[in-house]
Design brief:
Keywords: DNA-binding, Transcription, Transcription regulation. The chain is built from 11 helices and 11 strands. It is of the alpha+beta class. The protein folds into 3 domains: 80 residues, Arc Repressor Mutant, subunit A (Orthogonal Bundle); 99 residues, D-Maltodextrin-Binding Protein, domain 2 (3-Layer(aba) Sandwich); 97 residues, Periplasmic binding protein-like II (D-Maltodextrin-Binding Protein, domain 2, 3-Layer(aba) Sandwich).
Length: 295
């Protein structure tokens, strides 16, 4: 007889978030639960299925072959559930703007300003989804996307918002505990925090120093790397959008004055025509970033 039992749905939801974001930490933030709770849900689902879904590493989690197959199917099923509910919900005057955003920008710049944006656009509501790996938006799961990268990486890059300066930062305590850093090469003597295998190499090259660094630990996104630096564990690269407030408060300091512009924040849009609210939001983003970083 076929088994018609459903798996524990909270566990499926936790697994889906961890699979999409590549990290229990980021999944916990997206679902507003603790990291151990994500781990318990995934373990429960693995026991229910009788197979391992993730490989756990120091860098986060990666799907096993079984996990990839399972996620492909349950992601489609979850989207069908979302769409079925949306079709049955009574049509109201509520206006939602669903925005997929790289985590650092979502947490450190956008979220603190959403209430001010909402007051400027009465009736508009926001649904924010931090996501480290997306390269487009389809208009179904998100109306807009905000990414940080090069233009050629994205199929539907609607607008370039801002290209910030990138420079090394750490805590005052960490800087006081190490040998003085007076030039680029001095950085190589210290613990450099990596979120991408080439990010430091690219930054050094743009500043005229050819190096080929590797790391045994890579973090899932720049926000995670900055959090590690904020805990006093080393030096990370940051852009001025992500750490402006921390630099003002003195909780982080610049290690050197060397800086360079590498990539830009960009808005991704679906192929369909944008709503008036989406067009307004893009203009608001452009204006606010230009106002704050015009100097």
């Amino acid at each position: 007889m076929p088994d018609h039992r459903l798996p524990p749905l909270n566990a499926v939801r936790a697994f889906d978030a961890a699979a999409r974001l590549g990290s229990y930490v980021e999944a916990s933030k997206a679902l507003h639960v603790t990291q151990p709770a994500i781990g318990r849900h995934v373990k429960l689902l693995e026991e229910w299925l009788g197979t391992q879904l993730f490989e756990r590493t120091s860098r986060g989690v990666t799907l096993t072959s079984a996990g990839e197959k399972y996620h492909h199917k349950i992601a489609s099923a979850l989207q069908l559930i979302i769409e079925a509910g949306r079709e049955l919900q009574p049509k109201t005057s509520e206006r939602w703007l669903r925005i997929m955003v790289v985590p650092g920008f979502a947490k450190r710049w956008l979220t603190p300003r959403l209430e001010a944006a909402r007051r400027l656009r009465p009736g508009l509501k926001f649904a924010i989804e931090p996501n480290s790996t997306f390269t487009d938006v389809d208009g179904k799961t998100a109306d807009l996307g905000i990414v940080y990268g090069l233009d050629g990486e994205y199929a539907h890059s609607r607008a370039t918002l801002f290209c910030p300066q990138v420079f090394p930062i750490c805590t005052p305590g960490y800087l006081a505990s190490i040998e003085p850093i007076t030039q680029l090469a001095d950085l190589l003597k210290h613990n450099l925090i990596h979120f991408d295998g080439e990010w430091w190499n690219t930054w050094f090259a743009a500043n005229g120093l050819d190096v080929h660094l590797t790391s045994d630990v890579l973090y899932v996104n720049n926000d995670h790397a900055l959090s590690v630096a904020e805990s006093g564990q080393g030096i990370a690269l940051a852009n001025e959008v992500l750490v402006r407030e921390e630099l003002k408060a003195g909780t982080l300091v610049r290690v050197l004055e060397d800086q360079v512009k590498l990539e830009s924040y960009r808005v991704l849009t679906p192929s369909a025509e944008l709503s008036a609210d989406a067009q307004w939001f893009i203009q608001w983003l452009t204006t606010e970033l230009g106002r704050e970083f015009s100097d």
